[in-house]
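Subgroup meeting minutes
Present: P.N., E.W., G.H.
Scribe: E.W.

1. P.N. recapped why we're keeping a running log of single-chain structure predictions: easier to compare across weeks, and new members can see raw inputs and outputs side by side.
2. G.H. added today's entry (363 aa).
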Amino acid sequence: MLYYIFYEKLIHFFSPFNVFHYITFRLIMASLTSLFISLWLGKALIPVLKNLQIRDQFKGFEPDSHKKKSGTPTIGGLIIWGGFFSSSLLWMRFDVDINWIVSLGVFLFVLIGFLDDFLKIKRGNNNGLKAKTKFLMQILASFFVAYMIFEYDKSVGLCMGCIYVPFVKNGVLNLGLFYVVFAMFVIVGTSNAVNLTDGLDGLATGPSLTTIMPLIVFSYISGNVIFSRYLHLPYIVGVGELSVLLSALAGSLLGFLWYNCYPAEIFMGDTGSLAIGAMLGIVAVAIKEEVVLAIAGGIFVMETLSVIIQVTSYKTRGERVFRMAPIHHHFELKGWPESKVIVRFWIISLVLALLSLTALKLR
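Output recorded in log:
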């Protein structure tokens, strides 16, 4: 919105408004705007949720130490997405189709997460959407977004259905229409991976922030014809603007972390975690950096694999590999204080994010 007001309408009266044309300026302002909005929303919303007794319930498949957290306000994803969408509408360009594809995809996953949280609150227990129903809704939402991205690639002259593999010279795999299925897997997988990670105070928020950072870099470069050619990244018209949306999400997450850090005053719930993961997956698909997402978001991969290994081992051998899954609970039961688990996972996530940036040159 501000792009059109200041750059297209008012620049003739005041030339410094040209700054609104630059992505770098708008991504910084988007992050600051969403940060302050989410901080304000948190301060306003947490007392309301307490008064309405919209609280988290002990799930029964967590360490017993988590019982003391029962009663903490939940559905804090409203803080994250309130800041994100408000900031995005102010700073993004409306004429770039990929912005709307990503925003609509995120909104669909916010609705799924909100419905799940709402049913849990209404019923007073942890019985939200049935697992099959929630998964089906995720599949349908991801199919819509993946197909729209597939069509967008066609409209901008990009190789349709291609996966660009880093660390390999000329590493391009053309999956054709099957790429839509692959994209759906990335989006749904990342959505559920972040959801699984959201088990300790700030645990999902920190790795989400570190994963966003390399995605901002890759989206900005992929949207710049000069930088992308120099670094041998696919040039994709318009995706540079996604760095503005990612920055808006980063600012919102920082604001939410103010209230969500240990000991948490509020939990994000599925309203937050499902859509955060979905956005990471959608952007990675849009900029053709699915492998980079897997590296930068290695914490989410590790959490998901721990659950898969645990369930498979128990069903096939009748034995558990970990004391409890996801793996962050395993370390809790080994005696690590919650704050130590969180900070160490953040450190690992930061290292993985830095490692993912090596894909800029190693092609």
